[in-house]
TrEMBL record:
InterPro entries in UniProt: Papain-like_cys_pep_sf, Transglutaminase-like
UniProt protein name: Transglutaminase-like domain-containing protein
Positions of the Transglutaminase-like domain: 338-400
Pfam families to which the protein is assigned, alphabetical: Transglut_core
Length: 721
């Protein structure tokens, strides 16, 4: 009879770390044995007791959550799996199915006596079994679709150009837009949805010049760069029957890295402040169990050279076939799972390798994010870092593994190098967020998709979707200001609208604002700036203007500083509109402000130059700031009734100026503290005209600067008489 060979549970036995099982470990043992009903009954009874500690209560509640996640992962019947397989290769026999099951190729669990299959079991069969794959015409397994999983010219270029003084090479710049969309009616109307989207870390010689570009909502909180799982945090209220969107755009530089390791120079590592943490166990996923120790002995044998040990361990883990993963939050010990399941994905392989390396006295640590490619391929991905003395920390990626090459430096590229197509969010796993999440995380280990919650609890992955868009913008037109050449010009910026502000000189408080739109000249076929219908008086900072930080190259002369009363000069992106009203007619994204929204102008704050809500970050985090976004409530004026965010100092460099807007003026002779202001009718026209899809820019210059830079920056024609 079909399935006669199926018995027991496919999950490993949990690691025994204490002689007397705890309340939670007893329930985990039942869950591992597939006795979900008994575990639920026990947990419900335990939760009714008042003697439980908060930690015990939280752990027991998570076991209830974990069972739900396991049931979601293992939700397929054998008939579902069979239908998927037969859809691609035609009819299969009962014997074939039983053979695949007994070989561990169709992952399953027995839950309360019922055999349930992993919902991706059919998909994984074609990643794991060559015979089944051969019958599926024209199909490539996932790993084979990725160009950098085999030896590529890119690897050879990195190896050839790197040296001991400069192992980082082959720099690229990427522009990313990541969107997270919560399904309509996932939470009740009016409830606040909180979202954490992964955000790149600045890492010297690996990932640098991270630059925030835009987001929805515009109000956000970027975690400090020292957060090992860095995020950008948002809030938005749910609207009935409408999905809730969160997205962020940013750019960053990334480097290929390669260290040409000489194994004879490698020495054992002593535990120091830099390495001690990464030689230790980190339960539950990095544990030196008896099974890990026995596996290590079989692989390593009598080898004593740390690099050669690492090569043996790397090659072994690389030999474990790749397959899509069950949810990490459901696995008691991920490295042990990778050792026993017969297959593993990138994070599972990486944790197993980290465990084996640490057990052998070789420091190793986690790193993860996304990987791109010279083609359109991209995916969430996990890899790591390994420490070899005297070289220090070097990258490793065991899923890319050992490359087929006669040259050792290319063959072992991913044991001491990394390609230029990486996006690093995380330098550890299971690290705290900023601000902290109140409810259970959907992904308790990694952080690549994002996290969402509301006051009623966590929103799991099935309640929202995500989309990663990326673009290689390594050409000169996309370089950061300090990298741009004198050839910088507006034509090289992907914008179709520009707002130009001109003052008489750098001390003038009044000026003019003009609007232009890009059109293609029908005679020449070339783009040109044509005047739009907005031309109005404005006021700027009380001490005039000074060079700010934006898209333009660094310029000589006075530079904008915090508190100097100057509006920034230069070229800047225009962002989201904001105001006191629930909505405004505008082609920009719009964010209504509340009494608890402030812009942080305290240079020492991690929230510097960012909008934050005191209800979210706490009043203490905003101490000392002087920039409430509801000035009608706090300062009895209407200047922020309608406004637009100007992306000045987008890297939020402390002291370089913060909270720059276009907003309403008090009068035509009342300057600002550093913004640009105008009358309300003009603001209404400007808001209506601006279109976020046309990527509008703002150019602010004195007349003399405009004349000097007009040709080289290819500014619109303007009569300055």
């Amino acid at each position: 009879m079909l399935l006669a060979a199926v018995s027991g549970c496919s999950e490993n036995n949990p690691v025994k770390q204490q002689s007397k099982p705890s309340l939670v470990s007893k329930q985990q043992a039942l869950i591992a044995d597939g006795q979900f009903a008994a575990a639920r009954e026990n947990i419900d009874e335990l939760l009714s007791k008042k003697t439980l500690s908060e930690q015990q209560r939280s752990e027991l509640l998570f076991e209830l959550e974990r069972m739900q996640r396991i049931e979601r992962d293992f939700s397929a019947e054998l008939g579902d799996v069979r239908a998927y397989i037969e859809k691609h290769i035609g009819a299969v026999t009962d014997q074939q199915l039983n053979d695949w099951i007994n070989q561990g190729l169709l992952e399953y669990r027995v839950i309360d006596g019922e055999t349930k299959f992993f919902r991706s079991a059919g998909y994984n069969l074609f990643q794991l079994d060559e015979e089944a794959l051969a019958k599926r015409e024209g199909y490539q397994p996932f790993i084979e679709r990725a160009p950098l999983y085999a030896l590529h010219q890119h690897h050879s270029e990195i190896v050839a150009s790197a040296n001991i003084e400069k192992p980082n090479t082959e720099k690229k710049r990427f522009k990313v837009k990541y969107q997270l969309t919560v399904k309509a009616n996932a939470v009740p109307e009016g409830e606040v949805i909180k979202a954490w989207i992964p955000y790149p870390r600045d890492i010297e010689n690996r990932q640098e010049n991270v630059r925030y570009v835009n987001s929805k909502p515009a109000v956000h909180q970027i975690a400090g760069n020292d957060n090992l799982q860095r995020t950008i945090y948002f809030e938005a209220s749910a609207v009935k029957d409408q999905p809730t969107e969160f997205w962020v755009e940013y750019e960053y530089d990334t480097y290929g890295v390669f260290y040409d390791i000489d194994s004879e120079k490698i020495t054992p590592v002593m535990a120091t402040e830099e390495t001690r943490e990464f030689l230790q166990q980190k339960p539950p996923h990095v544990v030196f169990t008896p099974e890990i120790q026995a596996l290590s002995q079989r692989i390593v044998g009598d080898e004593t050279n740390p690099y050669k040990i690492a090569q043996k361990l790397f090659a072994y883990v690389d030999s474990i076939p790749w397959a899509t993963a069950i949810e990490y939050s459901t696995i008691p010990n991920i490295s042990e799972y990778a050792m026993t399941a017969g297959h593993a994905d990138c994070g599972q392989q990486t944790l197993l390798l980290i465990t084996l390396l640490r057990y052998n006295g070789i420091p190793a640590r986690w790193q993860s994010g996304w990987e791109f490619s010279p083609t359109s391929f991209d995916t969430m991905h996990d890899w790591g870092m390994v420490y070899f003395a005297p070289y220090g920390w070097v990258p490793m990626d065991v899923t890319h593994g050992v490359l087929e090459s006669d040259k050792d430096d290319e063959k072992w590229f991913y044991l001491s190098g990394i390609d230029s197509y990486r996006l690093i969010f995380n330098d550890d796993y299971s690290a705290k967020f900023e601000p902290e999440k109140q409810h259970f995380r959907s992904e308790t280990v990694d952080s690549q998709r994002g996290e969402v919650e509301w006051q009623g609890g966590n929103l799991y992955f099935d309640q929202w979707s995500y989309e990663m868009q990326w673009q290689d913008v390594s050409d000169a037109s996309s370089l950061l200001p300090d990298e741009q050449s004198s050839e910088f010009s507006l034509k090289n910026l992907d914008s179709e609208q520009v707002v130009v502000v001109v003052t008489d000189d750098n001390t003038a408080i009044q000026g003019k604002l003009y609007s232009f739109e890009k059109h293609i000249n029908s005679d020449t076929g070339k783009p040109e700036w044509l005047a739009a219908n907005i031309n109005t008086d404005i006021v700027v900072g009380k001490t005039g203007i000074a060079w700010g930080k934006g898209l333009h190259p660094a310029q000589p002369g006075q530079q904008k500083q915090e508190g100097d009363g100057k509006a920034p000069a230069g070229v800047f992106e225009l962002g989201t509109a904001f105001g006191y009203l629930p909505d405004l007619p505008t082609g920009l994204d719009y964010e209504p402000m509340t009494a608890t929204h402030f812009c942080m102008d305290v240079a020492g704050s991690p929230l510097y130059n960012q909008i934050a809500d005191s209800k979210v970050v706490g009043e203490k985090a905003l101490e000392g700031n002087s920039e409430p976004m509801r000035r009608d409530i706090h300062k009895n004026d209407q200047v922020y009734k309608k406004g637009i965010f100007v992306h000045h100092n987008p890297d939020n460099i402390a002291g370089n100026g913060s909270c720059i807007f276009i907003h309403l003026w008090r009068s035509d002779d009342s300057p600002t503290l550093g913004c640009t202001a105008m009358e309300e009718d003009a603001m209404d026209a400007l808001l209506t005209w601006l279109d976020k899809d046309k990527k509008p820019l703002m150019v602010t210059l004195t007349k003399a600067q405009y004349v000097r830079l007009k040709d080289s920056w290819q500014l619109p024609d303007l009569d300055l008489n």
